[in-house]
Structures are given as C-alpha cells and as structure tokens.
Amino acid sequence: MTSLDSATNPAHDAPDVSQLVVGVLGGTGDQGRGLALRLAKAGQQVIIGSRDAARAEASAAELGLGVRGADNATVARESDVVIVAVPWDGHAATLTALRAELAGKIVVDCVNPLGFDKQGAYALKPEEGSAAQQAAALLPDSRVTAAFHHLSAVLLQDESVERIDTDVMVLGDDRAATDVVRALADLIPGMRGIFAGRLRNAHQVEALVANLISVNRRYKAHAGLRVTDV
Amino acid sequence: MTSLDSATNPAHDAPDVSQLVVGVLGGTGDQGRGLALRLAKAGQQVIIGSRDAARAEASAAELGLGVRGADNATVARESDVVIVAVPWDGHAATLTALRAELAGKIVVDCVNPLGFDKQGAYALKPEEGSAAQQAAALLPDSRVTAAFHHLSAVLLQDESVERIDTDVMVLGDDRAATDVVRALADLIPGMRGIFAGRLRNAHQVEALVANLISVNRRYKAHAGLRVTDV
What we know:
2 copies of one chain form a homodimer. Chain A has 230 residues and is of the alpha/beta class. Chain A is built from 8 helices and 11 strands. In chain A, the strands form 2 sheets. In chain A, strands 3-2-1-4-5-8-9-10 form an 8-stranded mixed sheet. In chain A, β9, α7 (175-186) and β10 form a beta-alpha-beta unit. In chain A, α4 (91-97) packs parallel to α5 (131-138). Chains A and B meet through β7, β9, α8 and β11 of A and β7, β9, α8 and β11 of B. β11 (224-228) of chain A pairs antiparallel with β11 of chain B, so a sheet runs across the interface.
C-alpha cells in the first residue's frame, strides 16, 4: 500500500486546468468561501456568487487573492467550472433559475441534504436520489459532477492551516468532467481528487456528512476522509 | 492534525474485550472468514458459523488459530459478540431464525445491501432504512451495532498483508456496545474503531461500499477509508 503521508495522486490523464475560471454559487457561505479561498490560494481564477452582487463583492474583497464577486447568474455565465455550494433548501430554485447560464458548463455539486434534530444530523433523501442527481435533472445541458462534500468549512477558512489531509471523492458520468474536477481538487495541499463512482451513487457520499458530524462531536475534530490503498 | 501513520486511536474508555467470544455468522464467506482470521490472529476467541455445521468446521480447521466452527444457532448461543456477515438476501431470514439465541448479545452488522448491473454496483435501500436498522427491528432484545463495512475481503484474507490501513466506522445507539466493537476493531493492526453515529445513519455507511468498488475498479486498488483529524 502507498504511504498516506505523501498524498500523491496516482497518475491519471490530468487535464490542464490552470486557465479555467471557477465560479462558486453560494460563495459567501462558509463552505463556498472556504473553497474559493483554497482554490484562489492555489492560483486559480475564482469568482464567488450570491443572490446579492454587493454581498458577493464584499466577500471577494475580504478574500483578496484576485477573487471577484458577482451575482449568481454572472458567475455562472463567466465561469468554466461552477461549484454549487448553496444551502439544500435553495438548491432546486437556484439551479432552475440558472439553467441557461449553466448550459455547457461543468457543474460541481457539493451540497449535503441533511436534517437536524436533538440527536444530531441525519440524511435527507431527495426525490431524485441525491442533490447531484437533482442538479443533473434540472440542468440537462450541463456536465454535472459531485465533489467536495467532506471538507471541514472551519479548516478551509482557517488560513493558519496550510494543508488539509483529506481526499475529495469525485463522482460523475462524464469522464472528462470528473478529470477536471479531480485536477482542481489536486491543487489544494493535502487533498487528492479520487474518482468514486457515478452520480447514481452520490447519495451516500452526500449523506456521509451526517456521520462526519457525529465523529466531530465525539472526537472534537474536523474529520475528513482519506481513501487508503490509492 | 494527528499523523495518519501512527493509526493510534484517541483515548476512550476502552473496555477489556480479551475474554469475549466473537462469533461470525456467514463465517465461511470471504468477508466473514477474513474478519475471523484477523480477530483470531489478534488473540481473540472466534467461532465461525454457517447453516451447515460441517462446512463451518472445515473452514475453521483451515483457518487454524483456535478458531472453531458450528451451525449459526450454536455460534449465536456461545458468543458474546456476533458479527453478521451473511449475504444481504439471507439477512432477514437468518436473523429472524436466531432471535432467541441473539437476545442480550452485541450484534455487529457488516452487511452491505448492494445491487449490480453492467454499470457496476449501486446501493439498495432496505425498507427499514439500512441492513443495520433491519437487524435492530428483527432483534429487539439484542444490542445492535454496525461496523466493518469498508474492509477489503481480499486484504483480510491475505496472510502476507500484516497491516490493513483503514478505519472501522462503528455505529449504534448503545454506547457501551459501540465501545466494545471499537475495541475489537482496534485489535487489528492498522485499524481503528471510530464511532461514526447512530444506527439511523447506517445506510450511507453501508452504501458507500458501492463507491469503494468504483475506486477499486478505477485504481486497481483494495480501497479503505481513514478518518482524518482523529
């Protein structure tokens, strides 16, 4: 088995993603802002989106690193790869409104449909099977993938943390699209983008965040997942 | 973050499990036999079960290490902790028949309900929510937990592999029972038993095996999962 320390990704046909513009819908939320920060630190061109352009611009200015802010529609239009980091309850409405702007784009869904009660978090099961499958159903002209579910928003946003030891499970039915997303994940120190199946197997990857929340609570951790033997 | 190499488990009230007898239902299958081998190598008393006592005895003799074989009912009766490693399609019937023998026992469900077609594996959703919840429904007098889902049967059975780098997610609503199961997982070199939530969050842990199968296919690996920052 390979060492887990090196966090090297097995050779794959890594596409050159250096010129791609990455947009983040919901980029003013914790997860979205954290991903935007990490990708921008890695040298990627990043635009964060919000329903409110002024709020996105303010968040972008705080992040620095050349990050721009705009309303969600502009972000979708101007990006090559669009990360969907909106709350689950706004997921369907946001994507439905952006169907035209997202046509032809690589869409990366990282939404985790969860419910919470006094016993903690539990998985919700979207009618389409998963948030990612809902995105695919709503965006028939986009190249929908799923990734970046298991990252701690706390660690992502903590600039004193230089390296985040976790793998990024990347799912999708379009090989070239998942290769791009894997290459983007590879840019973040400590992370590897690992292909982990088709969209029909996205539900359990999304839902596993409920388990990581239990781990975090028990161990006072910011848990992630490393895929071993890869 | 802690080093992943050390595979040390954070301090917990680890119960002494050295005197517990571990039974494995479905102990002649790949997963069950592999688990029996690893636990026996770690010094645990192990009995493997099968519907056919003679078959279980033959498998036990092959394993050596003091492992005994018996019919499933005898195994359930004589064990303190009973690992359920039967195929999903025999799960409900096997447990229903053993309800009396399993009363009061710690039951560890490691069954992954999966379907297969030409695109690979996909998750099945049991009516009760998960295999583990089905077990809990069928065994109201047992202490049902879920664990050992993500282990490669190939690695478990390969005696040239001394250490298997993977964590064991342990789920359950009975804290003392999950502590016992975690302590058993800790016995196997390279593994740690990590509490990962209540039984209501077992489905995604079971279903994630479909994703690991995709990983294995793409990377020609025997993938496992390490929980980082714990």
